[in-house]
Amino acid sequence: MGLHKLRLAAAVPVTFSSRLFLKPFTNTLTLGLFSRHLQPRNKPLLVRAFSASAAVQDIPATQTSDSSVARPLWKAAIDFKWIRDNKEAVEINIRNRNSNANLEAVLQLYENMVNLQKEVERLREERNNVAKKMKGKLEPSERERLVEEGKNLKESLVTLEEDLVKLKDELQHVAQSIPNMTHPDVPVGGEDSSAIRQEVGSPREFSFPIKDHLQLGKDLDLIDFDSAAEVSGSKFFYLKNEAVLLEMALLNWTLSQVMKKGYTPLTTPEIVRSSIVEKCGFQPRGDNTQVYSIDGTDQCLIGTAEIPVGGIHMDSILLESALPLKYIAFSHCFRTEAGAAGAATKGLYRVHQFSKAEMFVICQPEDSESFHQELIQIEEDLFTSLGLHFKTLDMATADLGAPAYRKFDIEAWMPGLGRFGEISSASNCTDYQSRRLGIRYRPSEPPQTGPKKGKANLPATKFVHTLNATACAVPRMMVCLLENYQQEDGSVVIPEPLRPFMGGIELIKPKLK
Amino acid sequence: MGLHKLRLAAAVPVTFSSRLFLKPFTNTLTLGLFSRHLQPRNKPLLVRAFSASAAVQDIPATQTSDSSAARPLWKAAIDFKWIRDNKEAVEINIRNRNSNANLEAVLQLYENMVNLQKEVERLREERNNVAKKMKGKLEPSERERLVEEGKNLKESLVTLEEDLVKLKDELQHVAQSIPNMTHPDVPVGGEDSSAIRQEVGSPREFSFPIKDHLQLGKDLDLIDFDSAAEVSGSKFFYLKNEAVLLEMALLNWTLSQVMKKGYTPLTTPEIVRSSIVEKCGFQPRGDNTQVYSIDGTDQCLIGTAEIPVGGIHMDSILLESALPLKYIAFSHCFRTEAGAAGAATKGLYRVHQFSKAEMFVICQPEDSESFHQELIQIEEDLFTSLGLHFKTLDMATADLGAPAYRKFDIEAWMPGLGRFGEISSASNCTDYQSRRLGIRYRPSEPPQTGPKKGKANLPATKFVHTLNATACAVPRMMVCLLENYQQEDGSVVIPEPLRPFMGGIELIKPKHK
């Protein structure tokens, strides 16, 4: 998803609506399926998190009080059988990722669902048998008995089929909170456990008192937060003068570099349907949502281009020969930053609106790990070209959010802020998003199993893997460039690769007033 | 405001709430001010319109039923005295502009307000007199009489002061719909009356069957409306491949050209407070609003960068030496396009989200006409450089919307669509917006009147003039470029000025699949 991960509440309320269970359920049959109410766990779920601590947010219980919430508008193609057959691994994974997904509830609901499905099938067969019997010649009393039996069976079926629909909805709700599995090399633990993959450069030594980017932005007339606070609110800003050219140069240069690696450039809609946001693993609703919603519609503003790009191939079956699909998408991003008080919020570091170029890859499962390496390599190359001092982190399990199988963050040195700050993030989401977005491909070679007689020999479809990675999140790059390239006279040097993209400007000089 | 004007309902409900008049008003005094109820005119108001016909939208009467709607959150510094003293000219202007502003109601309310103000002042004086009298020695009966009189006066004052506040609010409501005055050279009449200021070039002759930009966009893999319809809704789009570079080149080139004329580049917030939208002359609420609102806040998305740029100097007094302020602002723009069904809606011509570079000038009143000429000249130069065939129109009175004193639109030839289409708009809003946004300046020379003894000789502040003009509305420029520069082999030539800004690409060729 890219830079500073949306801190999101759970995609599904944990307290699954026992309302459904309280409804008169099996009047005619005793299935014994609902021997106990599963205890709702009132702990927060982690879907997509910037940092684990920030993600821990309680979900108000009232969220589930509306019965309409219980009906999911779309379904993730979750592999329940696999989860059941790998219960222990899934349980450990949930624990390692500090997720509050309720595996026990999922398995119980799944078992209930399977049993209920069997029961429904049994009753259908029975009803068919009754119907078949009635075709022959019968004693009137026998016919009457069969009519009565058929009627009872039909009534039972209607009730059970309704229950089955509800149970499936319930299962979706609870199961959608199960996080992706984790790459075996990912360090287990919290933020501090993240492993350094690489460290590039060293902090620049300054022989003069340095300024932070806010001061530089003011002194060089590059950034205006004050007017934006009046016009829009806090954490909005205008870019001015050379900063506008620097933004354009950063984006142009980034696009040109990434296109050389075979990535297709895109611009995207910035208003999307809420369901797409959910399918990508973000939560567009709730008190602590990071997502701005449009009034009176089911649309919201994107927090990252990952969302509209992920949506391009939604509900489709791609040809194997079309893969990989590699995109570099430019968009503006909008985030409420709810609950970000106390976090590093100074200046451009955390803002409501920013420009970003985001890479997105759709590939075959067996290729996703190498594309993950490609993405992180592109990021490292870009930031090295700009002369930044940074380290690449293999993020620990508790810091992954729900969709990522593995995530590499890059943190760069920001001398004015006096610390490292996240400037990019590269995630391999394997089939987490594709199972929600419905993106499959059809392998060109037939599967290993022998051809069955009389059946079309088309290979079965598979879910693609998706990956996303920040190529350039403009405001944080500006923090790095302004703070690292400041000179004693208050000017800022433009890194060489960007100069051709900003009309040859080499230096941002203080303006004469 | 720039390209394809927001079609907007009135900023204020016309049916001003007679509720206020029905409240027991002058129990203690008979002012005779409200001798008759002014008949509400249930006709639509025109605030900012794309075309006169589209702007004619009925305002639902229910809008006024909420008493909170009657309290304006901000006040325009409308020069009521001037309106009263120029009643005939204002009346003719309202008629010429096809506005439904109710001048009679404004003048009546203003008179009521002035009279009520006088009455309040008279009562205050009387109360002061009573208080003064009571300081002396008095007969007990006389003192009692005075106490009683003072009490009555105080009660009357409280009532009248409340009424005055309400009357002022009412006056604001009704008066905000009065449009700007009109430049004497503007042709009087509807769309057909607009005068051609200049025509450049001629329609290109094609020796082959031509495609429209939609077909070209599909064949060259440049534009994806289908995926956007799924992800976001109709009238959204992805740009792809060379179209992304073309957008960037258009914006880069435009900025570089306009900066040469001394304009300061900006990027702006795209979420702003609703009040700023209103102050610029747009209507953020109502059934037919062009404005997307953010759920649960008082914020909305901008339809043009004119809004956040207009807001930069809101509520401030500028130095004369700081003027003119000339900006070229890049932003994404968002419009609901409510009620646009039936209008020219094909492909990129009318979309919900687009990129635009907008010029904005803040200057002294005496300079606004020459800056209007400068803006239209810049537009004409830009479009001439790109080799477009276009005509500049001096828009007729009924097509101006409320804020513009004069407006020049440029319409370019779009061979695929087979017609001219608006690609830019340059408006001189004189003091219409500055009286709402509160942007004044202090002349550096003292006014002509002789200095008064004992008083600080600071010249009085004046309202600035504001102007806005489209430099580049990307999607409509793309329509022009794709359709005009298509070749027989299906490729599209890039105009020379843009080539350096897109890595030297000269031709968009069909992709090999």
UniProtKB/TrEMBL annotation, chain A:
Record NCBIfam families: serS
Positions of L-serine binding: 304, 335, 358, 468
Domain Ubiquitin-like: 90-162
PROSITE patterns: AA_TRNA_LIGASE_II, UBIQUITIN_2
Entry's Gene Ontology BP terms: seryl-tRNA aminoacylation
GO cellular component: cytoplasm
A GO MF term: ATP binding
Coiled coil feature spans: 106-177
Positions bearing the site annotation: Important for serine binding: 470
Keywords: Aminoacyl-tRNA synthetase, ATP-binding, Coiled coil, Ligase, Nucleotide-binding, Protein biosynthesis
Protein name: serine--tRNA ligase
Binding site for ATP: 335-337, 351-354, 422-425
Record-listed E.C. numbers: 6.1.1.11
Superkingdom of origin organism: Eukaryota
Domain Aminoacyl-transfer RNA synthetases class-II family profile residue range list: 212-495
UniProt cross-references to SUPFAM superfamilies, sorted A to Z: Class II aaRS and biotin synthetases, tRNA-binding arm
Cited InterPro entries: aa-tRNA-synt_IIb (IPR002314), aa-tRNA-synth_II (IPR006195), aa-tRNA-synth_II/BPL/LPL (IPR045864), Ser-tRNA-ligase_type_1 (IPR002317), Ser-tRNA-synth_1_N (IPR015866), SerRS_1_N_sf (IPR042103), SerRS_core (IPR033729), tRNA-bd_arm (IPR010978)
Automatic annotation (TrEMBL), chain B:
Amino-acid positions noted as binding L-serine in the UniProt annotation, renumbered to this chain: 304, 335, 358, 468
GO biological process, one term: seryl-tRNA aminoacylation
Residues annotated as binding ATP: 335-337, 351-354, 422-425
InterPro entries: aa-tRNA-synt_IIb, aa-tRNA-synth_II, aa-tRNA-synth_II/BPL/LPL, Ser-tRNA-ligase_type_1, Ser-tRNA-synth_1_N, SerRS_1_N_sf, SerRS_core, tRNA-bd_arm
Residues of the site described as Important for serine binding: 470
Domain Aminoacyl-transfer RNA synthetases class-II family profile: 212-495
EC code: 6.1.1.11
Coiled-coil spans in chain: 106-177
GO MF: ATP binding; serine-tRNA ligase activity
Protein name per the record: serine--tRNA ligase
Organism from which the protein derives: Arabidopsis thaliana
Native organism taxonomy: Eukaryota, Viridiplantae, Streptophyta, Embryophyta, Tracheophyta
